[in-house]
Amino acid sequence: MAPDLLALSALSLEADSLRNGDPCYPLPSDSSKNAPNKAAAAERSRSDPSPVVGAAASSPLLSPRPTLMRLETVKSSECLEALMLSPSVRSTVSGGLFSPRIHSFEPHPMIGEAWEHLRRSIVYFRGNPVGTIAANDSAEEVLNYNQVFVRDFVPSALAFLMNGESDIVKNFLLKALRLQAWEKRIDNFTLGQGAMPASFKVLHDPVRRTDTMVADFGESAIGRVAPVDSGFWWIILLRAYTRSTGDHSLADMPDCQRGIKLILTLCLAEGFDTFPTLLCADGCCMVDRRMGIYGYPIEIQALFFMALRCAKTMLKQEAPGNKELLERIDKRLNALSYHMRNYFWLDHHQLNSIYRYKTEEYSHTAVNKFNVIPESIPDWVFDFMPMRGGYFIGNVSPARMDFRWFLLGNCVAILSSMATSEQAEAIMDLIEERWEDLVGEMPLKISYPAIEGHEWRIVTGFDPKNTRWSYHNGGSWPVLLWLLTAACVKTGRPQMARRAIEQAEQRLSLDGWPEYYDGKLGRYIGKQARKLQTWSIAGYLVAKMLLEDPTHLGMVSLDEDRNMKTLMTRSASWTV
Q1: What is the reported pLDDT for 564?
Q2: Residue 95 and residue 8 in contact, taking contact as beta carbons nearer than 8 Å
Q3: pLDDT confidence of 9, banded at 50, 70, 90?
Q4: Which of 162, 335, 368, 385 is positioned for an S-S bond with 357, CB 3.0–4.6 A?
Q5: Helical (H) or strand (E) element with 346
Q6: What is the pLDDT of residues 480-514, one digit of tens each?
Q7: Angle at 487 between CA 481 and CA 491, to 5 degrees
Q8: How far is Cα 285 from Cα 227, in angstroms, rounded to an integer?
Q9: How does strand 345-347 pair with strand 97-102?
Q10: Three-class DSSP category at 456
Q11: Alpha-carbon distance 306 to 412, whole Å?
């Protein structure tokens, strides 16, 4: 098909959307309402290195509509691909339930189905959408899957933002902020003021016609562990909302400014720690059951790093006390980046160095600073580590290194630029080299390898849900597709993401959008997995939209801070 005919088809598609009042294709007369004030946007940049996405119409690359200028200047084959990947699923409001409308250019039949399921999971509070439930599986016991989880809502929020629907995200951010102000008690102990809830539930009273919100700060969770990651995800999502909409008024609200500072106060409090990393209990994040991640898990450290950087861009410098807080953030970021890049990083060269470590070293000249016993290195890691590639290991603490691979922490390390550009490339190299192990038949492994036998009995306490290659113990989680795709886009490897998405598309919808898969290759639906798991659905949508329009990456990615200075260097006795 000739390029001019394709451009004509795109014009027809756009005109049809405009005639139907499509909310994702705003009419020219309405565009001024959503455009941010240019002077305010420039003033609010506050050293945030990422470009604003989806906000202004000044550049065709930032427009939420199909960019005809781009179609006119590319080859015919590229034009066809761009047109086929153009946004095709939009939404209208009908009877209080959002329903997708599918145009003639449908990239994949799963897209329309996914949007329908996502919209059916929306939770309303007093008539306003405030989040999405964890799963909509009526065949299984509800438990807490009918609640809105902070971490679970993040991919749903990103999907809505990428589709031009920001109200639900704004409502969620504000409701979570209100819940933060609640008194949080577990037995006779009161949690810190800055703690964010793990989840909340909306109770509808049809008789009194009232809605009540009930929050869980960990007092109902398995193991009674407070969610350390919830506050970090809230800060990250607040920045994503700001970058997507160009609306700084939400982050500038006194309540939001106070919420950010309360979260940071918890994390930056002085104590007995000798490391800049955060000490955490088992089960404090996505891995929310006993899995041996106590100490300094990579997931929390990467989220902590990203939250600090996001907070730094949103805090008002002129507000009382913020100058000192921003200085503390800078110092912590410098120390944390050095610690993570040096002590958590593992590649073939570093593995060989640890293998040759001497032990019982004393004084500041010690090379083996954590007194790790080389004999504690598991056998599998020698075969797993390729000559080309590397990753941030799961945990580092005195006399202990957890060599397991955790995908979420490594992808967030790339997106936050906690990883250097060389380390980011090495992580992607490792995934390519160990595709069968880390991706398998259903993306993606949350951790690798699985622990089993005597180690499983000791580490998990005979947990029947975390048996080998199941759930958090080497299970495969489709929601992680969006994180892998974002990392692939940032490192210039979209073909890797496309390969993983195509593998997921073979079964994900047919299997009913499960929560997770079991088996070494992820071949079996998880034995306790819920169907119609919302973040499996949303993760797929976000992955597809990131590939379709890479400018969305700015919501969840931060460029490397060139001004970040390393305050310390390795000991002069460090030898290779």
Answers
A1: 73
A2: no
A3: very low
A4: 368
A5: strand 345-347
A6: 999 999 999 999 999 999 999 999 999 999 999 99
A7: 145
A8: 6
A9: unpaired
A10: helix
A11: 8
